[in-house]
Design goal:
The protein has 218 residues and is an alpha/beta fold. The chain has one domain (61-217): Glutaredoxin. The chain has helices at 26-36, 108-126, 142-151, 168-172, 208-217, and strands spanning 43-44, 50-51, 76-79, 97-103, 131-137, 159-162, 185-189, 195-200. The strands form two sheets. The chain has a six-stranded mixed sheet with strand order 3-6-5-4-7-8, covered by helices on one side. A two-stranded antiparallel ribbon has the order 1-2. Helix 3 (142-151) links the parallel strand 5 (131-137) and strand 6 (159-162). The chain is globular.
């Protein structure tokens, strides 16, 4: 078994860090539209009766597969006290699927979908798909990221890769992902190390059948 190693975040965290803070503002501004989007509302039909809007079909995922290579540049890691940091470099092309998830501790949709992703991993493994996650934090504030990792349950996300500002363009370039992409972002890398799919935005339960088809077809 490969030993996981990397940078470990100290247990002594600064209490003054306010949840939701992001000193640079750059990445957060890109995602405010996602965080502030109102939920579906009902419409009033003639006669005063209320009717829900028609259900939209799931969006098409992975309809065109990008021809991209995986990055071979260094990426930092971080972990909550007592947790192992993920292995470096990310083991692309090691004979198993690697699901890269770009997230941040200030990103509401990112945090909301993390338990869903971990649940899907268990389901996919049960049907014989070898899959590992590579969670990649886009946080600027190390303290905020550390607070989140510490707050996670034992089976949650307690360690992560960390893509610092200044390193992002070079690392994301091979995937064809822009620094201005709306978080979360997902990249599915095949067992051969080929980028099979890139998805911008949070995933819903209704998206799972399409994702499963990608893994089963790869």
């Amino acid at each position: 078994m490969r030993r996981w190693f990397g940078l470990t975040v100290a247990a002594q965290l600064t209490v003054g860090c306010v949840e939701g803070s992001n000193p640079s503002g750059t990445v957060r501004d890109r995602n405010e539209a996602v965080l502030s989007t109102a939920g579906p509302s009902s419409t009033t039909a003639p006669g005063g009766t209320s009717s829900a809007p028609p259900t939209k079909p799931p969006r098409a995922l992975c309809s065109s597969r990008p021809r991209a290579k995986t990055p071979d540049t260094h990426i930092d890691t971080a972990a909550a006290p007592g947790a192992y940091a993920p292995p470096t470099p990310i083991p692309f092309g090691s004979g198993r699927w690697i699901w890269v998830n770009l997230w941040a501790a200030w990103c509401g949709p990112c945090k909301e979908e993390l338990p869903r992703l971990l649940k899907w991993q268990k389901v996919l493994r049960k049907i014989g798909i070898s899959l590992e996650f590579a969670f990649v934090s886009m946080d600027d504030d190390e303290r905020q990221m550390a607070r989140f990792l510490v707050s996670q349950p034992p089976d949650g996300v307690r360690s992560t890769y960390w893509l610092k500002e200044g390193d992002r363009a070079k690392w994301l370039g091979p995937f064809g992902i822009s620094e201005a992409a709306t978080l979360p972002v997902h990249a599915l890398v095949s067992p051969k190390g080929e980028v099979a799919c890139v998805i911008e935005g949070a995933l819903e339960e209704s998206d799972f059948p399409q994702l499963r088809a990608v893994f089963q077809g790869g």
